[in-house]
Amino acid sequence: MKGVFSEKSGTFQFMLIVLLGVAGAMVFSFLGVVMVPLFFPISFVELMENISSITSGNVGILKFLQLFAATGTFVVPALVAAYLFSNKPKRYLKVNSFPKPILVVLLLVIISLGANAVSDLLYRFTAAIPWPEALHFIKDILDKAESAMTAQMQKFLIMENVWQFAFSFLVMAILPAVGEELLFRGVIQRVMKRGFVGMHLSVWVTAFLFALLHQQFYAFLSIMALGVVLGYIKEWTGSIWVPIILHLINNGAIILGVYFLEFPYDNEGMLGDKVNWAISLPMLVVFAVALLALKKTFDTSNKSPLSKTEEALKI
C-alpha cells in the first residue's frame, strides 16, 4: 500500500485526508471512552449513562478523551496519508531534516515573542468590528460560542500539581503541535501545493482551513496569521520540525504562563487594557526582522522546479 495513491489528483488526496480525519476521530474517540474505566474510578456503564455531565465536570476524563481524539484526528491521518501518498513517507513529511537547530530555535523564540503583538492586534481588530443591528443575533451566537470555548480552555488549564501540569502540556501543547503540523503543513499544504500549483496559495488556503478547524471567531485572524507563518517557514526550511517547534512555543507559553505566573486565560485577559504601542511596535519590528532572517538564512523554496521524474524519486 505504500505510495499507492501517489499519482492521484490533489482533489482525491484531499478528500481522502478528510475521510481519514473523520474516521480517525470517531474510532479513537470510541477507544478513549472504552479506556476511561481503566484509568479512572468509574465503570463503562456509568460513563455511558452520564457521559455529558461526567466529561463536562471531570477535567481529568475530559483531557484523557481529548488525548485520544486529537491523536485520531491529526496524528494518525497524517501518518497514514503520508504512507499512501509517497514511497518515502518520512521524506514526504519532511521529518528527516532539521537545519542548524540552535539558530532556528533562537529565531523561533524571537518570532514567537513578536507574534504575540500581531495576534493581539488581530484579536482586537476582530472584536472591534461593528455589527449591524439586524445581525446582532449572529454576534450573540458567536459570543456564546466564544464563551463556551473559553470556559472549556479554562477547565483544561486547571493544574493543581506538577503531574496535571505535565499532562496538560502534553494534551494542549505537544500533541497539537506535532499532530496539527504533521496534518496541515506536512500533508494538506503539500496536497494543496500540488493541486493549486503554487506555494503561496497553498500556504494561505491551508492556513484558512487551519483557522476554520479551531472554531474561534474572534481569534480566527490570529490563528490564520499563525498558520501562514507556520506554512512559510516549513517551505523555507524544508523541515516539518521548524513549524512544530514554533507551534509548541506558542501553545506551551500559555500553559507555562497559567501554571507558573497565574496568567488569567479569559476574554478580558486576552484583550487587557488598550494597546501599548511603545511595546507593540518594537515587537512587530522584531517579529518582521526575525522572520526575514529565517527566510534569508534557510529559504529553499526558490530552487529550480524538479522534473516529474525527479519529484517522483524525491517523494
3D architecture notes:
By secondary structure, the protein is mostly helical. The chain has one domain. Helices cover 78% and strands 0% of the residues. It is built from 14 helices and no strands. It has helices at residues 10-39, 44-49, 51-57, 59-85, 89-93, 101-127, 136-156, 162-196, 199-214, 220-237, 241-261, 267-271, 277-298, 308-314. Helix 6 (101-127) crosses helix 11 (241-261), helix 9 (199-214) runs antiparallel to helix 10 (220-237) and helix 10 (220-237) crosses helix 11. Residues 304-315 have low confidence and may be disordered.
Topology:
Layout lengths: L9 H30 L4 H6 L1 H7 L1 H27 L3 H5 L7 H27 L8 H21 L5 H35 L2 H16 L5 H18 L3 H21 L5 H5 L5 H22 L9 H7 L1
Number of helices: 14
Give the N-terminus to C-terminus distance in angstroms.
15 Å
The helix-strand sequence is HHHHHHHHHHHHHH
State the major sheet: none
User: Would you tell me the structural class of the helices and strands?
Assistant: mainly alpha
Strand content: under 5%
**Which percent bin holds the helix content?**
over 70%
| Model regions low in confidence, pLDDT < 50 over at least 5 residues | 304-315
The average pLDDT value, as a whole number, equals: 88
Offer a few descriptive terms.
315 residues; mainly alpha; 14 helices; globular; disordered C terminus
